[in-house]
Batch of 3 targets.
Target 1
Amino acid sequence: MTQTLQAYPKMKDSGVPWLGEVPEHWEIHRGKNLFRKMNRPVSDSDEVVTCFRDGTVTLRKKRRVSGFTESLKEIGYQGIRRGDLVIHAMDAFAGAIGVSDSDGKGTPVYSVCEPSLKTDSHYYAHLLREMARSQWIQALAKGIRERSTDFRFEAFGLQPLPLPPAEEQAATVQYLDGVDRKIQQFIRNRRRLIEVLNEQKQAIINQVVTGKVEVKKVEGKREKEKEKAEGKREKGKETG
C-alpha cells in the first residue's frame, strides 16, 4: 500500500521529540493557534455523543447503549457539532481522539475544538492519534496513576504541531481513508472466511458424532497418506 508513496525531497528537524523530521516547507504551530476550544450550550434535542478509543466520535446509540455509566445530572455538558475535533482528556493516550460525525452533547471531560481556516480536523485527528501511539501523550501525564492522563485543551494547546499546506492535509486524509477502506474490507472478507470454515467444521463434527459418516474410512485414508509420506522419506534417505 505504500509502494506509490515517495519521500519529500527536503526535510528539516521539527524540534518536536515525538515527530522528528518534517518536510522543509511545513510550518510548526502550537495547538492553540490551530484550534479554539468551544463551549456551546446544549439544546433539549441533543443526544449524547461518545468519543471511543478507536477514534470514532458518534452518537452513543449508534454503537451501544449498555456498559456506560449514566449521569443523573448532566452537569457541564457541552454542545458538539459535526466536524468538531473531540479529545477525551482521560483516554486520549489510548486513542480517544476523533472528529464527530453527529450533532449532540458530550461530557465536560471532552475538549471540543473548532479548526481554524488552515486546519483539517480529520488530519489532526490522525496526527494526535499518532502522538498517542508514540506514547507522547502518556509521557505528558503529571499524575501518579499508571495509564492515566489528563490531556486537556491547555496541554494540547501548548503542543507544537506540524502545519502542512491545506491541500496536503486533504490529500493525506483522502489517502488514509482509502487505505482504511481496503483494510476493513480485507478484515470483513477474512472474518467471513473464518465463519464459513467454522460452519464446515461444525458440519463435519455433526456428521461424525451422529453417525452420518464412517470414521474408520476417514482414518484409513489418513493412514494411507501417512504411510505414503513415510515411504517418500525412506526413499530420500536411500538415494542420499
Target 2
Amino acid sequence: MLLIKKEKQLKDEITNLRKFGKKINFIPTMGNLHSGHLSLVEKAKKKDHVCLVSIFVNQLQFNDKVDFRNYPRTIEKDQFLLSEQKADILFLPNSDFISKNISNYNLGDESRKLCGKDRKGHFLGVVSVILRFLKLIEPDYMFLGEKDFQQTIIINKLINFYNFKTKIKVLPTIRNSKGIAISSRNQFIKNEVSLIQLLPQTLIQIKKDVENGGFEIKKINHYKELLEKKGIEKVNYLEILKVKNLEHLNQNYSMARIFISATISGVRLIDNILIERGVILVGGKVEMCD
C-alpha cells in the first residue's frame, strides 16, 4: 500500500494511474476504522480499479470542540488494517488541508432535516472537505455507507451541482450479531449494549408494523416515549421519510426509510432501515403499495 501525505504526490500518482486506464475508487474516512469501513474497501477493490482511502479528522463537521479533540486517532492501527485489506493508496493530508473557516453552501431542505436539525453546521463541514477531495482526486466512484444515508443524499446533490463525473456507491450497513450498526462511537458506550440494541429493534418493529398495513404515523410518538422509558437518554428523531429527497410521506407512491437517532450516555448514535416496498400516506396511515 502506498502512503501519501502530499497533495502534489497524490495528484501525480493519479495522473500516472489514469494513463494506464485505471479508475479511482475513493473512500473518505476520519480513521478509527472498523468492519464497516473495511467492507467498503473490500467492495472498492476491483480489477483495473484503484482503491484510495483517505483519513482526515475534519474539525468543521464537529459541533463540539471537545468531541473533536477526543475523537480517536488510531493511524498505526488503521494503516495495518488497510494494508491487510490490500488497499492501494492511503492519503493522509495535513491538518491545513481545508480552511478552518466553514464555507457557506446551499445544501437544500435535505440538510435541514434529521441530523441537520440539531447539528448546526455539520453538513456544511462535511461538504467542505468532500468538495476539496473531489477537486483533488476526481474519483470515478465514491464508496459510502448506508448508515449515513442523509449524508449520501447531500453529497450526491453536491456532485450533481458541480457536474463532477463521480458516481456514488452506497453499500449496506454492517451490523454485529445483535443487529447493532457498527460505529466508531459504539466504543464509548460499551456497557450500554442493551440500550444500543433498542435502536435496530425499534426500526425492525416499525417496519413490521408498516408491512402489516394501516400503520398510524402518529404511533411514532409512542415508540419515542417507549425508548425513553426504557432508559434512552434522548430520542433525537424517529421518522419515516422518502428515500429520494427525505420528504415526509404523502399520497404519492414512494420508497421510504425509517430513520432514528438517539443519545445514550452522552453519545449520539444514528441508524436507518429501508422499507422494501413502496408506501403512501392516506388518512394518517402508512399503506404498502404493490
Target 3
Amino acid sequence: MNDSIPTAFVAGIIAISLLVLVAMRVMGRNGKTTAETKPDEHSRQRIVYAIVLAVNIASLASIIAMAFIYSQGAQRGMTMDDWKTMSLGEVITANDETPVSQTLPSDRNGDIVILYKYDCPDCEAIYGQLDDAIRDTGAKDVYFIASSSETGRELIEEGNIQTAPTGIYLRREALDNGTAITHIPLAASNGNETVLDTAALRRLVLLQSNGK
C-alpha cells in the first residue's frame, strides 16, 4: 500500500485538530462583551465561531473514520487500486466480508494457506463455508493470506497460481520437479452459485495428515 494515504490522514487530523483548538481559543477570548463590541455583534461572532468549530470537529471525525476504514482494508489485502476505484460503501462491505491477512510462521512446512483476493466475489462466497469445513476436515495450521500481501505474491510466483481463492499445502517434502507447494482452486460452481469445493480442501488436509 502507498504510504501517502496514511500520511495524508495523519496530516489532515493534525491540521483539523489545530483548527479546532484555534477556534476554541478565539471563542474563549471573545466570550465577554467589551465596551467596543455591541451585544448583537458579539452574538453574531459567537455564532460564526460555533459554526466554524462544529465544521472542524465534523471534518476531524470524518478523517478519523476514513483512516479507520482504510486501515481495516489494508489489513485485509486492499490495494491502492481498490481504494481508488471502490466506493466507500463497497470498501466497508468488503472489509466486513474479508478475513484479516495473516502471517506465516518461519517454519511454514506442513501448513495450509487459503489464498484470497480482496473484493473477490468467489472468495467472499466461500468464507462462510470455510470455518465449518476446516473444522470438519480436521485441518490444522490454516492461514488466510491475501494475494496482494508480500507472502501472497511470493506464493503466487512460486506456484504460478492463477486463480483465487486457492488452497495451498506447503509441503514438507518437495516433489521431483522441486516444487514445494501443492495448490488447488477452492471455488466450485453449483448452478448459479459459487460454493466451496470441499473435496479440494480434503485433498490438502490428506497431504497434511500424511506429512508429505
